[in-house]
From TrEMBL:
Domain Glucose-methanol-choline oxidoreductase N-terminal residues, every copy: 77-100, 250-264
Gene Ontology MF annotations: flavin adenine dinucleotide binding; oxidoreductase activity, acting on CH-OH group of donors
UniProt name for this protein: Unannotated protein
Species of origin: freshwater metagenome
Family membership: Belongs to the GMC oxidoreductase family.
Keyword DNA repair: no
Keyword Protein transport: no
InterPro entries, sorted: FAD/NAD-bd_sf, GMC_OxRdtase, GMC_OxRdtase_N, GMC_OxRtase_C
């Protein structure tokens, strides 16, 4: 058993690393941060030149059920920085409406006014300091300049303008809709994760300890209070006692830890022989994920350069017939090298393709996460239920039609030789396009909502607006699993802001 600490945080991801760094600013507070991945940082993997949509080597190696007929890889960060260390480096904020919806779900202090304060604090924004942006924070937020756009990305921008999309100077101003540069958390060619932005500057603090290679089996609960965690290191078990336990394992890994600790759906836990401390049906429920669809494009000769940056521009738009603003995000992958997957290359008939992609940012479908074993290293069962609601499928079908229109504009049509993996006949009906959506829909790796925040009186909630787990003293959750609704954005900045807000609540 180690000496008792004031706060133990499980998971050094986007939220957990942020929280640890902020809490340790108080020199009187002993903070212990535990991470299953290695305690060292892989600098090579943080180079932007190595950041693609390909799977990384520093994740858990999970898979997930996309729909009843398809299993897909579902990487989750297993490294200092968590998801912020394995993602594409996009730094999109949630919309003001997203945060106000969190507050409206019975969570005072989580509306846009409060969360804007956290978003400004975390950033060093190239727009400069203002009422909506911050400077001097741990995470740089940088936009591509016009002269930096590749010819491929410029054609995409011009094509989007040709179909009527507005030009956007700042996707993070909370008001804009249209096409513009993706803000990115990058500096000097490096993606700045929370490991770099938050933990590195705090590394010399004597009151902050970061331990890697630690598998946390369970939260130890005595008489209704969390008193520490039981961990496994190199096969040996150890008890760490703490005044407060914070679980920050992300929306996929937080529910299994809570379940192994006796907190979750009572029937499931009893079936696995786990003593139930609190029967909370919401643990693992309400899983939200952004479903994306691709339009794969076979390029004309000389169009794709695999040495170029893969994505620079995006369009936040509202789906036809939707009353939810900016519920779609559209982008272009400038190149996709198929040579490492010869079976796909042979089907497509090209070594390198490019793609337009669009994701539903406010999906109606819900999935779930569950454990099938009490082993802490066992992969959880993950049902994403991608595009499992008719409205999600309808919006992706509309997005496909828009993407085809974009390829037919003057700025892009000479780059397109044809489409891959979609039959010409599929465009004849929405039903055929819907079937295509179900065959290719892919997660954007933004899982949220599996330990939903809200009053204990509200069915399906797990934590209150102070992040305290219902029915257990001394235990909180601080990651995107608390999301009542999913953010209409890539979710990295939202997760970091949750860490910032958690630090305020635990101060």
């Amino acid at each position: 058993m180690t000496d008792r600490v004031d706060v133990v945080i499980v998971g050094a991801g986007a939220a957990g690393a942020t929280l640890a760094a902020r809490l340790s600013e108080d020199a009187s507070r002993r903070v212990l941060l535990l991470e299953a991945g290695p305690a060292r940082k892989d600098a090579h993997a943080d180079l932007l030149s190595n950041v693609t949509f390909a799977l990384t080597q520093r994740d858990w190696g999970f898979s997930a059920q996309a729909n009843p007929t398809r299993i897909v890889p579902f990487p989750q960060g297993k490294a200092l920085g968590g998801g912020s260390a394995v993602n594409g480096g996009l730094a999109l904020r949630p919309l003001p409406e997203d945060m106000d919806a969190w507050e409206a779900a019975g969570n005072p202090g989580w509306g846009w006014t409060d969360m804007l304060r956290c978003l400004r604090r975390l950033e060093d924004d190239d727009c400069g300091a203002s009422d909506i942006h911050g400077t001097g924070g741990p995470i740089p937020v940088v936009r591509w300049r016009d002269e930096e756009f590749t010819a491929q990305q410029r054609s995409f921008y011009d094509a989007c303008r040709a179909v009527g999309l507005d030009a956007v100077a700042d996707h993070n101003d909370g008001r804009s809709s249209g096409i513009g540069s993706f803000p990115m958390n990058r500096r000097d060619g490096v993606r700045v994760s929370t490991a770099i932005g938050y933990l590195e500057p705090a590394a010399s603090r004597p009151n902050l300890t970061v331990r890697g290679g630690v598998l946390v089996d369970r939260v130890v609960v005595r008489d209704g209070r969390a008193v520490g965690v039981e961990i496994i290191v190199d096969g040996a078990r150890e008890l760490i006692e703490a005044g407060e336990v914070v679980v920050s394992c992300g929306a996929i890994q937080t529910p299994p830890l809570l379940m192994r600790s006796g907190i979750g759906p009572g029937a499931l836990l009893r079936d696995l022989g786990i003593d139930v401390h609190v029967d909370l049906a919401g643990v693992g429920a309400n899983l939200m994920e952004h479903p994306g669809a691709f339009l794969f494009i076979v390029p004309n000769e000389g169009v794709c350069d695999i040495a170029e940056v893969q994505f620079q521009l995006g369009a936040r738009i509202t789906a036809p017939g939707s009353d939810q603003r900016n519920d779609l995000l559209l982008g272009m992958m400038s190149h996709w090298d198929l040579r490492p997957t010869p079976e796909l290359r042979d089907v497509v008939g090209a070594d390198v393709i490019f793609a337009l992609t669009c994701g539903v940012l406010l999906p109606q479908a819900r999935g779930r996460v569950a454990i099938t074993s009490t082993a802490p290293d066992a992969a959880p069962f993950v049902d994403l239920n991608l595009a499992g609601h008719p409205e999600d499928e309808r919006r992706l079908v509309a997005a496909l039609r828009l993407m085809r229109d974009i390829t037919r504009t003057a700025p892009m049509r000479d780059r397109v030789k044809g489409f891959a993996l979609i039959d010409d006949a599929a465009w004849d009906s929405d039903a055929s396009l819907g079937a295509y959506v179900q065959s290719v829909s892919a997660p954007w790796y933004h899982p949220s909502g599996t330990a939903r925040m809200g009053p204990a009186s509200m069915e399906g909630t797990v934590v209150d607006h102070h992040l305290r787990v219902h029915g257990i003293a001394g235990l909180r959750v601080a990651d995107l699993s608390i999301s009542p609704t999913i953010a209409r954005a890539t979710t990295n900045l939202t997760a970091i802001a949750v860490g910032e807000r958690a630090a305020e609540l635990l101060a």
